[in-house]
Specification:
140 residues; rod-shaped; 2 domains; 2 helices
Length: 140
């Protein structure tokens, strides 16, 4: 009779390996290397297929589009006014106010924003020789 092979051949191979030179550090380094390669291959596949394109509309994408801040400078002329009033209503962000508008103007506004909808809105009115400028955040 012919002798049948058992399923234990693989287990004999595994248990006959010499693992005496294997240290905890080597195991951790191998696991780290395998993890890094797996992430690189996975993200590479997603990037090549276009699944991580910044224009694909994925908010969780690590390849987000970086926006540069747009600069906008607006100058408001006195238009015959002898005095002025400036009212600023803004939400969150950094606001720096100082004097020194150009001659013949009541106010010069320099604004930096990353989205067009964040550009402030201005209204200008004159009454009784007083020019009033109101600068508001469009979200307010």
């Amino acid at each position: 009779m012919k002798e049948q092979k058992t399923d234990d051949e693989f287990s004999r191979l595994v248990f006959s390996l010499n693992l005496s030179g294997l240290t905890g550090t080597k195991i951790i380094l191998w696991l780290l290397a395998i993890t890094i390669v797996s992430f690189a291959v996975g993200f590479g596949i997603l990037a090549i297929t276009g699944a991580l394109s910044p224009t694909a509309g994925h908010s969780g994408s690590p390849f987000f589009m970086v926006h540069t801040a747009a600069q906008n400078t607006t100058t408001f002329a006195l238009e015959g006014a002898t005095a002025g009033s400036v009212e600023i209503t803004m939400g969150a962000g950094e606001l720096l106010v100082h004097g020194g508008a150009p001659p013949g103007s009541i106010m010069e506004s320099g604004v930096s924003y990353t989205a067009p909808e964040w550009q402030p809105e201005y209204s200008q009115s004159a009454a009784g020789g007083i020019m009033t400028i109101i600068m508001t955040d469009p979200g307010k």
